[in-house]
Design brief:
The chain contains seven helices and four strands; from the N terminus they run ααβααβββααα. It is an alpha+beta fold. The relative contact order is 0.14.
Length: 187
Amino acid sequence: MRTALDARTSTGYGNRARRGFHGELDVQTALAAAQTAARLRDAAAVGEKISGPATRRALIGAASIPAFEGALTTPKAAAKFLVRDGLVLFDNPDSFLICAFKRDTALCDPDPGAAAPNQFACQLGCGNAIRTDSHAQAAREHADRLDAKAALVPQPLGDRIRRTAGRFRALADAHDSAAQSAEVAIS
């Protein structure tokens, strides 16, 4: 919703107090980011390996967030949480990664002052990306589904779908070759 309802197009929509709907978006975004950090922390604790240019920053961000025990209740507290540039983690299941969002290095072209990435514009090679073994496995499963779909369509379209599946497998293979445990990544 944050990407679809950016401040330029929805200022004043569903206005609540001074911040309107965007205050509620901050709360929901902060909750989702806290849950993403908890999942990364749990995955690292059970031995999942992690890869990507932002691995160290993401692990530090996940460790610095207290265990999720409830909800951030105010838009002000949520906004304060979201300005921790580089330490707030956003799950992007469509791109099979977690974004340790840092505006200055984001390739998704976020607005100046954005508190979250533009998940619809996620780019390969972004310095904010990390992947876990679970992301790599999900990318392989997606590639398998694409291959099954490619078998059911005409050849030119099927070839294009198979190339896309190959890119997802290459992404998972790159993770496998670069992945390391959390202890190694932080040291």
